[in-house]
Amino acid sequence: MSDITLILHAAQRGDPKAAEELLPLLYDELRKLAAQKMAREPQGQTLQPTALVHEAWLRLIRAEDRRFENRAHFFGAAAEAMRRILVENARRKLRLKHGGGQRRLDLSQVDVAVASDDETVIAISDAMDKLASHDPQGAELIRLRFFAGLTNAEAGEMLSLPERTAKRVWAYARAWLYAELKKTL
Length: 185
What we know:
The protein is an all-alpha fold. It is 70% helix and 0% strand. The chain has helices at 3-12, 16-39, 49-62, 71-94, 117-132, 136-147, 152-158, 163-184. Helix 1 (3-12) crosses helix 2 (16-39), helix 3 packs across helix 4 (71-94) and helix 5 (117-132) packs antiparallel against helix 6 (136-147). The radius of gyration is 18 Å and the shape is globular. The termini are far apart. 29% of the residues are buried. The model is unreliable at 105-116 (pLDDT under 50).
């Protein structure tokens, strides 16, 4: 077992120092994942990678059922926490109170009709939930690729999939997601 897995197990047993020891070990990797995801967000994003990492960390350590079998399980949970935070942030910004999804348009670009990034994040999250009902592995791969910013090889490793299998699952999930998004966007 790795040091991280041992510390995760200690945290599950209620060791108060375990969480303090765990954050420094995982912070750089979590920050890297958040930075990769935030690099794809639109300019003017109010949520920063550091804030995303901290919010995800707080959700993970406060969770009632925080049982992590190993490093891969932890990063899967971290990716899910980041996904939920980004979706909540996108939905908050789209609420009527915050403009109801209306976008500022430069008059020179009025003819451009594209979905906003917040709408896309929500649509992908909703489609991913739908995909999970019949292809949980594909949905998990999308979550790790899109919301955690992992490469196909990294996501495959997290899911204990051979690289060829990860590519095959990604190809199907991406095609399914594209077809589903075409219906909603």
